[in-house]
Amino acid sequence: MIPRLVADTLTQLRAALEHTVYAEVEHLLARPLTPEEARSIEMPASTTSASFESWLNHRRRRELPPLQSSAPFAQRIRALQPFRRRAPDEHPLKLLVEYTNLAKHRRPAVAAARLGAVYPDAPHPGLVVAQPLERRPQAGSGQPLHVDDIIATGPRNEYIPFSIVTTVSLQRPHTGVWNIAVNELEYLENWVRATAIPIIVTGDHDVTPLPPQLDIDTGHDDLRRALADAGTDSAVERGSRRIQATVARTGLTEMLIPLLGSDLAETINEWASAVADDAVVERVNRLAQARHSHHGALRVIEELAEEVRAYKTRPHEPDRS
């Protein structure tokens, strides 16, 4: 599932660039493009200055004033080309093109689980791990996990609790480098939204970027107003909060059930599920801040217990605080 979702996401990011270029050319011409002209409009990804000039000199493109070499719009496109960086293969536009070409013509993005770290829950001299924390692989190093890979060894017949941290990573098609998938997507999404599209439209990225949190489940009669009201949290930030909230809910229920009694277990689980993501994380943070003070921790626990009791006796409305 992950390679296909990644491929869809990256294809949409590249389409956003292509659509912006097309719309801007029509805007600058103040007329619709002919079918022949429309076929020549694209977002190039040139790794050399010569190849970019060759792209501009295409027969149909050079006849369009916005795409003539000295035109301001052509200069905006030039500013976003991979050859403008010392390492063109690492340029976000080059990455985007390589990923989407792979997905369109050969296969979805290559994704795999890789070993981030293995460490004992408590120090144990007999445990030898494959990736100690101090040697945790950096982005681009290490290989995917395979069946029969040894991740830890220890004394036979001895119980040693330890934790395994894995990362879901993408392999860049043209360099073979592995990067954590969510970091790669965040990097490319942010570049398209906050750098590339503003430069294509205005010539400058020092502008208010497009908001990343627009509800597309319904149509919008006034798109400008919808954008003005849209949220500013990226998908990565929202996903991170959901993960934190899931962990926080588990921690709260595991802590409160022994304290309040198993007869309230169902109520505690329902209460934790009803608390909004931000609110449940806030409650866990409040408890963590009070853990160094016995009286402070007891006070927070009692506040949470009181919330559970109140939840049991009131109409069940989700907590949006």
Describe this structure in words.
The protein has eleven helices and five strands. The protein is mainly alpha-helical and 321 residues long. It folds into three domains: 138 residues, no CATH class; 62 residues, no CATH class; 79 residues, no CATH class. Helix content is 50%, strand content 8%.
Low-confidence stretches: 132-141
* N- and C-termini, Cα separation: 34 Å
Q: By helix and strand content, what is the structural category?
A: mainly alpha
Q: Helical residue percent?
A: 40-55%
Percent of sequence in beta strands: 5-15%
Mean pLDDT: 88
Helix count from the secondary structure assignment: 11
TL;DR of this structure?
The protein has eleven helices and five strands.
Keywords:
3-stranded antiparallel beta sheet, single chain, about 10% strand, extended, 11 helices, two-stranded antiparallel sheet, about 325 residues, mainly alpha
Give the helices and strands, then pairings.
Blueprint: H1 2-29, H2 35-39, H3 49-56, H4 72-79, H5 92-105, E1 111-120, E2 128-129, E3 152-153, E4 162-171, E5 178-180, H6 181-202, H7 223-229, H8 235-260, H9 265-274, H10 277-290, H11 294-313
Antiparallel strand pairs: 1-4, 2-3, 4-5
Helix pairs in contact: 1-5, 1-6, 4-6, 5-6, 8-9, 8-10, 10-11
